[in-house]
Amino acid sequence: MGRRHFLASAAGLGALALAPGWNTPGAEPRPGRLKQGVCLGVFGKMPLDLDGKCREAARLGALGVDLVGPDAFPILKKHGLVPTMIPGGSDIKKGINDKNNHAEIDKRMRAMIQAAAEAGAPNVIVMAGDRKGITDQEGLESSVLFLNNIKKHAEDSGVTLCLELLNSKVNHPGYMCDSTRWGVKVCQQVNSPRVKLLYDIYHMQIMEGDVIRTIRENIQYIGHFHTAGNPGRHEFDETQELNYPAICKAIADAGFKGYFSHEYSPTGEPLATLDKMMRLCEV
């Protein structure tokens, strides 16, 4: 079971437009222009349940949590956190690039779009899927077909579908949406303000590099960001090749208004590490 599906069944504030009741007094966001969130992996092996992780995320100034499904929404709400990116029913291996998967994924994704709309969650994740002998052009056409069939539901619901960019070189061999160029082509052909990309900075550093220029040139197609250091997918410290303060400044200067969520695996004490990573991204 992949991380995108496991969390679906696992269990900002101020000027942000949230569903009623999602703002908890005392949960202060980090300073700066980016709306920072977290994935639960940043807590490493800490012996905390979801409630404890949400408590610490809110205390450290996160605005939301990625990759949790409706079962977790009440706990996030308790701590004033937004479900910033929820699973949509597609998978890294079994995604929308294969027409044989469309009926099954469409049913699940419509349900998750509805759940997101009711909870005030802004985004639903979409996975392209494995190549498995499918050419990039065939996968592009299939992905566009799927998204064209569901985009009106997303538009009417005020929810953005975010197609995730992942690397096929190290972590996910065979994954089709492994370049910004391919992902942008999908977005351009679907032509909906509710179909964008989840730009994972770690993954795209591995596949493409040239992160800042790529983000600047394609910011209109990006709906969400994930972070991690490279190499290793750990925190982005002085041993890493990515300059996150500069990347964050470029994203903020480009006028990005979505969420920017941390998705690294810590090598040190998780809470101190998260505080440091979020501080580096205060631009």
Describe the structure.
The chain has 283 residues and is of the alpha/beta class. The protein has one domain (3-12, 33-280): Alpha-Beta Barrel (TIM Barrel). The chain has ten helices and eight strands. The strands form two sheets. A six-stranded parallel beta sheet has the order 1-8-7-6-5-4. A two-stranded parallel sheet has the order 2-3. Strand 7, helix 9 (244-253) and strand 8 form a beta-alpha-beta unit. Helix 4 (102-119) packs parallel to helix 5 (136-157), helix 5 (136-157) packs across helix 6 and helix 8 runs parallel beside helix 9 (244-253). The longest helix is centred in the middle third of the chain and has 22 residues, at 136-157. The radius of gyration is 17 Å and the shape is globular. The termini are far apart. The relative contact order is 0.15. The model is unreliable at 1-26 (pLDDT under 50).
